[in-house]
Amino acid sequence: MIDLISYSSRVPEAGETIVGDSFQMTFGGKGANQAVMASILGSRVGFINCLGNDVYGDSYRENLEKYDINLTYLIEGQGPTGVATILVEPDGTNRIVIVPGANFELTSEASREGVLHFTPRVVVGQLEVSGDATYGAFLAAKEIGATTILNPAPATGIAVLPEGLLELTDWLIPNENEFLALSNEVVSESSISSFVSDKKFSLIVTLGEEGVIFANRDEDLISYPAGKVDAVDTTGAGDAFVGAFAHGLAQGLEPAAAIVLGLDRATDSVTRKGTQISYMVKNE
């Protein structure tokens, strides 16, 4: 996704035009953000998706190459490259509209073939591609014994999750809105415990500046607080967490240590504007 980010003192009312403070066009998309963060931290990353046959697609391919990400299965589609229109307020709060474009052209067959080609330790999926594509990737992951992480975002994709996808998921990482869409309950200790009690996957609910809650059916809930910082832009913070957490698992860290790493990278990211450009530079 190409992120078109406007920063303003407030968001406009219906039918209103306001003058913004600044604008950035940056590289985003949940899967790409997570791949970039994992690569920055030192993981070998393969990226499976579709780009449009347009100038945005060409630019995005060049961007991912800078992060040493394997693009063997970054396929050229027929539609335009996906875009996200993002409005950011002074406290860092964002509102996002995405147009997936070529992202939805990724097929289950291509995602499965890509996973079998890369033979990764961890496979991360989101809902900015079709549910069938994620399902194909997770099926392949189970064939090779890889750990699967599903970030069920955006929440609108949850209504059309393929049957059986959650059964192939080892780690489910929703935010508060996505948890509500999954469980029909707001986040609380009781709702989380109830939701996870009969599930095979482990659950991490991300809560923004409040940190995360970790749960599985065999243990008590554990809360991990986030560090306190002055947030500039929260766009991409959840992706920073998921990418760093996935890196941690791939490197053999215990889940608690991977969660702490994810929180550290997410908290750091909100102190700068943008998505991938808010992550630490590789050679810093």
- Please state the overall shape, judged from the principal axes of the Cα atoms: globular
Structural category: alpha/beta
Query: What is the helix fraction of residues, given as a range?
Result: 25-40%
Compute the number of strand runs. Answer: 12
Oligomer: single chain
Largest sheet: 6 strands, mixed
Give the strand order, joined by hyphens, for the main sheet: 7-8-9-10-11-12
Distance between the termini: 25 Å
What's the order of the H and E elements?
EEHEHEEEHEHEEHHEEEHH
CATH architecture group name? 3-Layer(aba) Sandwich
- Which value, in Å, is the CA radius of gyration? 18 Å
What's the CATH first level?
A: Alpha Beta
β-sheet strand percentage: 15-25%
Describe the structure.
The chain is an alpha/beta fold and 284 residues long. It has a single domain (30-80, 102-275), classed as Ribokinase (UDP-N-acetylmuramoyl-L-alanine:D-glutamate ligase), CATH 3.40.1190. It has helices at residues 30-40, 55-66, 108-118, 131-144, 176-183, 189-196, 237-250, 255-269; strands at 2-7, 22-27, 49-51, 74-76, 83-88, 94-99, 122-125, 147-150, 171-172, 202-206, 212-215, 222-224. A six-stranded mixed β-sheet has the order 7-8-9-10-11-12, with helices on both faces. The two termini are 25 Å apart.
